[in-house]
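Re: beginner question about structure tokens

> Can someone show what the tokenized structure looks like for a real chain? I only ever see the sequence side.

Sure, here's an example I had lying around. Input first:
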Amino acid sequence: MLKVENLVVSYGMIEAVKGISFEVNDGEIVTLIGANGAGKTTTMHAISGLLKPVSGSILLDGTELTKVHPDKIVSMGLAQVPEGRRVFAQQTVEDNLILGAYHRKDKDGIEADKKKVFELFPRLEERRTQLAGTLSGGEQQMLAMARALMAKPKIMLMDEPSMGLSPLLVKEIFHIIEDINKQGTTVLLVEQNAKMALAIADRAYVLETGKITLSGTGEELANDARVKSAYLGG
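And the corresponding structure tokens:
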């Protein structure tokens, strides 16, 4: 489904991503773990078209994305849940969801998907007329995920969905990610909470200073002594 090959991304003279390659197969949850500054968010932004790479290839179902405008990438079936939620604070919950489906013309389908989203996030239905900026952090994260689902993506990129949330809410968010995946959406997950990310991932990659240093199944990396020492507090 998604194939990244020899990706290089720079900020001026600083090379943030240094020729990485990885893939996400249809139906998988794949996670990128690593410390702050490892290049995880930069990689996500390059995939979704928000940053233009210096070199390398990003293929979605065989189509090269590096020369495609970000809004066209969304319509091709890729949606991103950004770090920090980035909800439209002065718009209602329902308006945020409608904005997530901005490129779609199927009104009946949009209404049907809104109902599905409210089934997945019942708290959002209770707050559908509330301004997004007045929601709690956990509710805003749910809204950011729900808004991305309204784009009807084949693959969803999630950037630090558990950041700043209480342990109880972190568990809930990860259960929802698993539900989204079970309902047919492939997931590429960037997370600093390596323990939770590896627990739900089919496969995982460790990103360190712009390079992939380890890869394997979620279980393999969770049991790897180097990963335990660096990321799991063991």
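Each token stands for a local structural state, so reading them left to right follows the chain. The radius of gyration is 17 Å.
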